[in-house]
Amino acid sequence: MSNTFQLQPTLCFTLLGTFIIFVWARPSRSALLGVLIIAVGLRMALIRAMGSLGTYWGVRWIGWGAFLGIASLLVQFVQILRSRGRLADDDRKRLRETFYAGAVFPGCSMLIGYTVPLTIWLRHRTFDAFLLAFDGSLGAQPSFLFGRLLHWGSNDWGLTTVVYYALPAAVSIVYASHLAAERAGKRRVVSILALFLSLMAAGAALYAVYPAIGPLLAFPKLFPWNPPPLSQITLQPMTVRDFARNCMPSLHLSGALGVWWNSRLWARWGRMLAGLFLCATIFATLALGEHYLVDLVVAVPFMMSLQAAWTVAVPLAEPRRRRPLVVGALLTTVWIVLLRYGLSMFFVSRVIPWGLIVITLSWSLVLEKRLGATAYKSAYLS
């Protein structure tokens, strides 16, 4: 059975984020050395017990994230136990904050994972045919086009997969940078922890409302080489295997947008990397067949509403915060209703689906840009 063991990449990157938060808090050299020693020991023990870490591309170095994250939590836990009577109250508080911050993302990630069987049980059938039909109304199937592009450049397959799974680490970098800014005396702009935790919770809820699994799993005999003509797509819920209904809206793109929007306090090169990660995430979600173009579109107003909800530097009564919150929620709702009950209107002309996409994206991005400009001006110039 040892050769069937796989160290899950999502867990590895999530725990790598735990290690990033630990390092960002500037631990002592002895604490950092302790983490490295424990991580090496854990890795050796697991390989000895299971025979290997897994067989997917990059597992030998991706797996380090899991061991470094677990080791950093162990070291911090020991430090908290030993800090009574040895450290000032402020130092002990910071130590606990760093520990909780590093533990909450993997903890909540595993908790959300338990909702997957529940969603499958609640929704046996999915609406993948509806999403495929909408994308087809655009005149092409974007996920199939990107999928073929990825297969032609097969050497990039592993790197694309890494980008897809690396989101938790990127989120942890954003959170660590905001936490460091607050500790340096800057006013809190966005409640980052609440933002991404609510993203996971709201996304899990919408997965039950509009279940879908993506073209790779829903249409394995077609993706990516044989996109079906629009006339051959049967518009009815599909009975599919027990795959996670985690497609609509795309939490991968939502998370990447959260990283991009909340990197405004970074230096220019950091912003460029965040923008590059956003573009790479868009490519990866489509090319790997995990998402349709339309659920990426819906992710933009969905994430904008959450971003506005947790931008605490701007009062809720302020129109620049209230407007994106309301508009984002409204656009998300309208899209979900139309994709379930109003698909026929998109088949009249390509102008209709493309026009709605342009309106959704431009409106959302303009509202969010105004919100971000107001929030950071308020926080850093007041």
Describe the fold and architecture.
This protein has 382 residues and is mainly alpha-helical. The protein folds into two domains: 106 residues, no CATH class; 268 residues, no CATH class. Helices cover 69% and strands 1% of the residues. The chain has 17 helices and two strands. The chain has a two-stranded antiparallel sheet with strand order 1-2. It is globular, with a radius of gyration of 22 Å. The mean pLDDT is 90.
List keywords for this structure.
382 residues; mainly alpha; 2 domains; 2 strands; 1% strand
Unreliable stretches covering 5 or more consecutive residues: none
Counting structural domains, the number is 2
Main β-sheet, in a few words? 2 strands, antiparallel
> In DSSP terms, counting alpha (H) and pi (I) runs of 4 or more, how many helices?
17
Strand order of the largest sheet: 1-2
Counted beta strands: 2
Helicity range: 55-70%
Structural class: mainly alpha
What general outline do the C-alpha atoms trace? globular
Kindly state the mean pLDDT as a whole number? 90
Radius of gyration: 22 Å
Instruction: Report how far the terminal alpha carbons are from each other.
Output: 60 Å
**In percent, how much strand structure appears in the residues?**
under 5%
Order of helices and strands: HHHHHHEHHHHHHEHHHHH
